[in-house]
Amino acid sequence: MGIFVTEECTGCKLCIRSCPFAAIEIKDNQAVILDNCTLCGSCESVCPVQAIKIEKEEKTKDFSDYKNVWVFGEQREGDLNSVVHELVGQGRRLANKLKENLSVILPGYQNIAQAKELINYGVDKVYLIDKKELAEYNDEYYTYVMAELIKKYNPSIVLMGATTIGRSLGPRVAARIKTGLTADCTSLDIDDKSKILLQTRPAFGGNIMATIVCKNHRPQMATVRPGVMKAAEKRENYEGIISKEDLDLSKVILKTEVIDIVREIEDSINIAEADIIVSGGRGVGSGENFNLIRELADTLGGAVGASRAAVDSGWISHDHQVGQTGTTVAPRIYIACGISGAVQHLVGMKSSDIIIAINKDPGASIFNYATYGLVGDLFKIIPLLIEQLKSGAT
Ligand code: FAD
Ligand code: SF4
């Protein structure tokens, strides 16, 4: 693509205001496009004499040099984030469909044990970058490492968790290597014909699911919501290799420095990682009534979730919210109590293995997704369940 200004330009300056990147100047009564122009096209339509032209390349690009699926091996203090195993599971499926390899790119410090562990989950190659500077996450170092290795090895797909780190790193890497990024995907697949990555995520407030493709740039990059994809299973004696990469980090100009790390004190279980979740909705009726939901969760050894209606009513904090604007979960058992099953709630829990719904309205849409449905008043059903569970009945 290219942009140029034709002789018709009158120097009226209308385009200057339209440019969100301040990338136009007037020199000698003519608009001049500066180097920081992103070709966003905002100026093209405002020019009254159509003097700004953006040429779009039509020719099909050859991406035959780009191969293999990569996962970013996010870790903190030597522990891999659980989303890495989910991405490895999904990455394996994509790589198998493409008949390509699955690799994990693993920046960190003294992280050889993590690399070996990843091979046991069906990873063909781990690119290991073992440097003291990479012990803690740092935007500049990690962006440099990712971008350099992507440029060196040309993967066709790069996946990261839509975690705090992934959400910071993904766009920086994509901008550095000039490719696209689809944030917060909830499903990924390969188009059978074109072999392009189909990246699906909720759009327009969750009312539709949009499938996005990256046709003209490589690699195809996506961040993926934690808890949505099934984690990879352990495969004993899987044969993969560890490739040690030596990068000169002294070239990186640091604009930030980690001085101290202050840990947040968590007063609740992380629902994204809970095996059993008991969630309450508007049907629970009050904050006090949530004690019943907590009692059932405690009896089952699970965590407490909630719908947005319950959170917005102030009955429980936002950390517990499940759904599009809350946490995405995929526990073994999800019990929805007094929750109607709005699409924004469903998108955050429908991958659960077993869904049990308790609702007094037999027409509630949650029942369309439930493995087991109990029609009735939750204030009668839950105490009976607790009593049975406490008495040891199964
Ligand atoms: P309701 O829809 O009011 O359902 C209450 C249910 O309780 C009813 O089905 C009723 O039959 C049942 N009930 C009542 N009393 C009893 C009883 N005694 N026993 C048994 N059942 C009973 N929602 C989320 O949950 N998570 C999100 O992340 C989220 N994000 C959103 C983002 C956007 C942009 C928008 C627009 C909405 C979002 N929502 C989200 C809101 C969502 O659309 C619904 O409004 C919300 O999920 C409804 O919560 P609910 O099912 O608890 O309440
Ligand atoms: Fe020139 Fe068109 Fe920009 Fe006016 S809007 S300065 S005519 S390019």
Automatic annotation (TrEMBL):
Pfam families: ETF, ETF_alpha, Fer4_7. FAD binds at residues 282, 307-308, 321-325, 338-345, 359. GO terms for biological process: fatty acid beta-oxidation using acyl-CoA dehydrogenase. CDD domains: ETF_alpha. The keyword Flavoprotein applies. Its cofactor is FAD. Keywords: Electron transport, FAD, Flavoprotein, Iron, Iron-sulfur, Metal-binding, Transport. Binds 1 FAD per dimer. Residues 1-29, 30-57 form the 4Fe-4S ferredoxin-type domain. GO terms for molecular function: electron transfer activity; flavin adenine dinucleotide binding; iron-sulfur cluster binding; metal ion binding. Belongs to the ETF alpha-subunit/FixB family. This is 4Fe-4S dicluster domain-containing protein. It comes from Iocasia fonsfrigidae.
